[in-house]
Amino acid sequence: MQSLIPDAGLFPTLVFDPNPENARAIAEQLSRQRISVRVAQSAADVLQSVRRSHFRVLFVAADLGNEECLRFLDAVRRTTPRSWLIVSNARVDRPSRMIVYRHGGDVLVEAPVDIHDLVERIAGLRVRSRPFY
């Protein structure tokens, strides 16, 4: 079965969750959907990875109430302005979305993530280029 995502093999999706078990589970489920995935082991690994390779989509689990986490999102956006950034958080309300957008995220999804929703979002983002602001 071929992926419905045209460049799924060319540009992997980078997955980062501070809980390594969650990150592996998400990556495994995305791989079953024929989405090429790389799992980052730490915030530093995310930044190092995006400096070395291009990822069309990044998925990051974040605590929007944590200043260090928000600085990390800012750093990710500065480092990779042309990649889509999907952020997962327990709360998905208007104030949370505004925080995500302010810190460089493009999409906010509810944690725990619904893998089918995530696959649809990745597929939708992969077919368009991220605006360069």
Q: Layout of SSEs?
A:
Blueprint: E1 13-16, H1 20-32, E2 37-39, H2 43-52, E3 57-61, H3 67-79, E4 84-89, H4 94-102, E5 107-110, H5 115-126
Parallel strand pairs: 1-2, 1-3, 3-4, 4-5
Helix pairs in contact: 2-3
Explained architecture:
The chain has a five-stranded parallel sheet with strand order 2-1-3-4-5, with helices on both faces. The model has no long low-confidence stretch (mean pLDDT 91). The protein is α/β, with parallel strands linked by helices and 133 residues long. It has a single domain (13-126), classed as Rossmann fold. Helix 2 runs parallel beside helix 3 (67-79). The longest helix is centred in the N-terminal third of the chain and has 13 residues, at 20-32. It has helices at residues 20-32, 43-52, 67-79, 94-102, 115-126, and strands at 13-16, 37-39, 57-61, 84-89, 107-110. The chain contains five helices and five strands; from the N terminus they run βαβαβαβαβα.
CATH topology: Rossmann fold
| Cα-atom radius of gyration | 13 Å
Number of domains: 1
The poorly predicted ranges are none
Rounded average pLDDT:
91
Straight-line N-to-C gap? 37 Å
Question: What's the helical proportion of residues?
Answer: 40-55%
> How many DSSP H or I helices?
5
Strands of the widest sheet, in order across it, are 2-1-3-4-5
Strand residue percentage: 15-25%
| Beta strands, count | 5
**CATH class, please?**
Alpha Beta
Overall morphology: globular
Major β-sheet profile: 5 strands, parallel
